[in-house]
Amino acid sequence: MTRRSKPATVQVLRTLSAMRTWTARARGKGETVALVPTMGALHAGHLALVRLAKRRADRVIVSIFVNPAQFAPNEDFSSYPRTWDADAAALSELSVDAIWAPSVATMYPDGFATKLVPGGPALAGLEDKFRPHFFGGVCTVVAKLLLQVAPDFATFGEKDYQQLKVVTAMARDLDIPTKIVGLPTVREKDGLAMSSRNAYLSANERAAAPTLHRVLKQCAAGLKAGQSLAATLDEGTAQIESVGFAVDYLEARHAETLAKIATLADGPARLLVAAKLGRTRLIDNIGV
Question: Is 43 a catalytic residue?
Answer without folding.
Answer: no
